[in-house]
Amino acid sequence: MSTPTVERAERTDPRPHGAPRRVGPMRTMRHGLTLAGRSVRKIRKSPEGLLDVTLQPILFLAMFVYLLGGAIAGDTGEYLQRTLPGVMAMNMVFGSLGTGMQLNNDITKGVFDRFRSLPVARSAPLIGAVLGDVVRYVVSIAVLLIVATLMGFRIETNVVSAAAAIVLVIGFALCVCWISVMLGMLVKSQQALPGVAMSFMFPLTMGSNVFAPTETMPGWLQAWVSVNPVSKLADTARGLMIGGPVAGPLSATLVWMVALVVVFFPLALWAYRSRV
Amino acid sequence: MTLTVRAEGLVKRFGTTKALDGVHLAAPAGSILGVLGPNGAGKTTSVRILATLLQPDGGHATVAGHDVLRDPVGVRGKIGLTGQYASVDEELTGTENLVLIGRLLEMTRSSAKSRAKELLERFGLSDAANRAIKTYSGGMRRRLDLAASLVGRPEVLYLDEPTTGLDPRSRNQVWDMVGALTSEGVTVLLTTQYLEEADQLADRISVIDHGRVVAEGRADELKRHSGGQTLQVRLSDPDDVTATETILRELTGQAPTANHETGLLTTPAEDPVLMSALVRGLDEAGITADELSLRLPSLDEAFLSITGKPATAGDSAREGEAEDDAA
């Protein structure tokens, strides 16, 4: 990136067509939205691409609730109430894999080079991919909530709190996805990505309090589980959907979200620049 | 004469390999510049730099008045890119792809749609407009790539090996389309490994090898550069070959290349008078010929004499590099 002084020094150069030197933020956002529209169009064309974020969490939920819920909580109904907000949180981490897959595909197939040969900001394709995924997450959460309701889940707080939980969970997804974006840029082939991604997804999702209370775990595991961002997000979502403390876990979640963006957004951008 | 594309001394290193070692290219407005060379010569790297997808380590380049390093966005507003990379989305339809590009170029929805329709018609893809690209044949796909690079009515078009892997019919279609573009004033930079393609399409050719431009000129200049003309005789009766060989040896002082089965003889012809002398000689001997011609060497022969190795791409080129490294 050029420093402001360099920019000013260059301004003396003739610009015969008066074309902009950089793409402004408004145009970048507009291009990002156009490219997000492309992702949405692709979801509509092949909805089976949504199975990873719709079917998988339902399977997890059903398996844990009916198979283990009785053993863990003594009652499957109570276990469902406690687990659903956590599965919602966990699903965002698994769902972020799709972002990395899509971007890797675009780069290896050369679609990104086409975009980059247009007068479009370099970040627009990244913004587009990430925004397009918001649609996937919304569909995913909607399907999960419908199925959970059929299974007997009930919101115990109010609609506004529950909606806040959904917004927070999607916001978290937008922060954690930069890990996948970075990995998507670094791995050579799309096939290699799920394996590599599991190495960070598994500790985040399974090493959390989503399925079992932290107190039942050995001390060394408790140390991780009690700071794990997915645990914090799950606690917040529980508080907002079935009642309980919100302020504490929410502030921890927000700190995590900022930290994830501060660390992985620049890394993802660096990986993107070095790849394309 | 204004140069729409001007590259001076471009250098690009990838690790320890020097992909470009001072490449100069110049394409006057409205012309087709052919960049000819084997695989790994630096053609694609040059195009990627001129399309602002890659930054050079040295040298500079301007495209349609914009400097590729100082004003890449300005360059991108003037160019179209079609090639081995710069692809379209396989899951979207032809129309959707072109409209998407139009929208990214700040067109309104309706003008992007009408531009897409117009281009699909022009490239004979109207019937396939609403089919996903993954169902397209290789030739259709390449035509759509070409259409995609023209959405923004670029002043400069880069075609990076536009016909590699196409069957002859599709190749001819692409050639016709490229020819039609220059009549609209578009400046085209075309890279190719095929001499025939450069010969057919390009106004001027830059021959590139090992990251350097080793020859530059019009096709006929390059051919002449590699030696004089060749005289070719095809006899009606292959039995006359021996007698004709004697006549040619007397006229030129060297043995011609002769094929006793096909009755075809060729010999270098530095002196244009040779043709009429041969006609008289054959007439006196009562030999008839089906074909008698004086031609410039092919670009293949020219390439061989310029680079010291055949123009066949791939393995032979890499072998050549290995030999050079060993030397």
Report on the structure:
The complex is a heterodimer of chains A (276) and B (327). The relative contact order of chain A is 0.13. Chain A is an all-alpha fold. Chain A has eleven helices and no strands. Chain B is α/β, with parallel strands linked by helices and 327 residues long. Chain B is built from twelve helices and 14 strands. Chains A and B meet through helix 2 and helix 5 of A and strand 5, helix 2, strand 6 and helix 3 of B. Chain B: One of its GO terms (cellular component) is plasma membrane. Chain B: This is Oleandomycin transport system ATP-binding protein. Chain B: It is a peripheral membrane protein.
Give the number of helices of chain B.
12
Principal-axis shape of chain B: elongated
Number of strands of chain B: 14
Give the mean pLDDT of chain B.
Answer: 85
Domain ABC transporter (chain B): 5-235
Subcellular location (chain B): Cell membrane
Protein name (chain B): Oleandomycin transport system ATP-binding protein
Pfam families (chain B): ABC_tran
State the gist of this model:
The complex is a heterodimer of chains A (276) and B (327). Chain A is an all-alpha fold and 276 residues long.
Name the descriptors.
heterodimer; A: 276 residues; mainly alpha; 11 helices; globular; disordered N terminus; B: 327 residues; Rossmann fold; Alpha-Beta Plaits; 2 domains; six-stranded mixed beta sheet; four-stranded antiparallel beta sheet; 12 helices; 14 strands; elongated
Question: Layout of SSEs?
Answer:
The complex is a heterodimer of chains A (276) and B (327).
Chain A: H1 4-10, H2 25-45, H3 51-73, H4 76-109, H5 111-116, H6 124-151, H7 159-186, H8 193-205, H9 219-225, H10 229-242, H11 247-275
Helix pairs in contact in A: 2-6, 3-4, 3-6, 4-6, 4-7, 4-8, 4-10, 6-7, 7-10, 7-11, 10-11
Chain B: E1 3-14, E2 17-28, E3 32-36, H1 43-50, E4 58-63, E5 66-67, H2 72-76, E6 79-82, H3 94-104, H4 109-122, H5 138-150, E7 156-160, H6 168-182, E8 187-192, H7 195-201, E9 204-209, E10 212-217, H8 219-225, E11 229-235, H9 241-252, E12 257-259, E13 264-269, H10 274-285, E14 289-295, H11 299-307, H12 315-326
Parallel strand pairs in B: 3-8, 3-9, 6-7, 7-8
Antiparallel strand pairs in B: 1-2, 1-4, 4-5, 9-10, 11-13, 11-14, 12-13
